Amino acid sequence: MLHKTLDDYLLRIEQILMALENAYIERYEEEILTPQRANLRIRVRFTGGYLLEINETIAVDNDVLMWLDYRYHCQDEQNNLIFRYDSTPHFPELSSFPHHKHLPDEVIACQKPDIGEVIQAVSQDNFAI
Predict the structure, then answer these.
(1) Strands 23-34, 37-46: parallel, antiparallel or unpaired by DSSP?
(2) CA distance 17 to 13
(3) Which residues pair with 72 in a beta bridge?
(4) Hey, how many other C-beta atoms are within 10 angstroms of the C-beta on 123?
(5) Looking only at Cα atoms, what is the longest distance across the chain?
(6) Most CB contacts within 10 A, which of 15, 48, 85, 93?
(7) Cβ–Cβ under 8 Å, residues 97 and 86
(8) CA-based end-to-end distance of the chain
(9) Facing residues of 28 across strands?
């Protein structure tokens, strides 16, 4: 049986996606690895032409969610990068290492954003998150 903390998180994401009126889900995949660990892969296409890809590896430790890896990639209909948040450890000089945000012309330090806020921002064409 799935750990309640993880189950609640996955349910929250599903509810956020189901409430979107200007998007359709191209892919929604929950890969349950153990009761405390899952992979989440989502592709959301918005009516404005934006694509948001979400990839997370999530674990529960002492009833607390931990993201072992994540990537939130947003691009426009011409496949141009709008932003990508990720935890790939390839910018060790950033103060938020390994967390960072790719923009079209730079990479900046940042903490992992809340995925619900990322989804809502893209839904509202607000990329200043």
Answers:
(1) antiparallel
(2) 6
(3) 54, 85
(4) 21
(5) 45
(6) 85
(7) no
(8) 35
(9) 42
Q: Which residue has the tokens 């002492």?
A: 62
Q: ω before 89 within 30° of 0 (cis)? A: no
Measuring CA to CA, which residue among 83, 76, 75, 80 is closest to residue 113?
A: 83
Rounded CA-CA distance 98/126 in Å is 25
Query: Pseudo-torsion of CA 55, 18, 46, 126, nearest 10°?
Result: -80
d(CA 54, CA 85) in angstroms, rounded, equals 10
Nearest to 81 by CA among 108, 101, 109, 111: 101
Tokens, residue 20: 């979107």
129 residues of the chain, pLDDT tens digit each: 899 999 999 999 999 999 999 999 999 999 999 999 999 999 999 998 999 999 999 999 999 999 999 999 999 999 999 999 999 999 999 999 999 999 999 999 999 999 999 999 999 887 766
**Burial of 62 per CB tally in 10 Å (0-12, 13-18, 19+):** exposed
